[in-house]
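Thread: Newbie trying to understand structure tokens

Hi all, I'm a second-year student working on a class project, and my supervisor (Dr. K.) asked me to get a predicted structure for one chain before our next meeting. I've only ever worked with sequences, so writing a 3D structure as a token string is new to me. If someone could post the tokens and maybe explain what I'm looking at, I'd be very grateful. Here's the chain:
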Amino acid sequence: MDHVDANPERLAGTWHIVCSSFPMWLGGRRTDATSTYTPLPGRNPGPPRMRDEVAYRVRGRTRRIPGTDTRLTSRPGTVYRWRGKGLLAVLTSVWEVRETGEDDAWAVIAFTRSLLTPAGVDVVVRADRLTDRGVLAEAKAAADRYGAEPLPLPDSGSAPA
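---
Reply by user tm_fold:
Sure, no problem. This is what the structure looks like when written as tokens:
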């Protein structure tokens, strides 16, 4: 398997979760899920880090899950350890970018279980590419390879093509 090499600058920005195998996103109670990555200043010496904020809507209100990702440079590919912030600081998970589309328009992110959540796969699309049918079709094809189900797109009410 070829490994993707994506540093925090390459991942920076907001990504919409368009397909998933993660129970939290399935079932329709939580919608419009996004992940926003913001590179953090480097610690010398130290691995690359970034702020990670997951946001979603439930009953018309936006909820946020803040955390910090630290790249695990001893592993091949793009592997990060997520640690929650505040009350969630006891939670950790390891995640990896498995695939990316052309120009990093979409990505497949696989993550391990945490103390409270199962392992899963999210297929994400950059916010500025969310209306591109070709990008959505490629993301859906990647999701099929990983057993991830399409989710309703924001504002459209329909699942990815």
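A couple of things are worth pointing out once you decode it. The beta strands are 13-20, 31-39, 49-58, 61-71, 78-84, 92-100, 106-111, 120-126, 149-150. The mean pLDDT is 92. Feel free to ask follow-ups in this thread.
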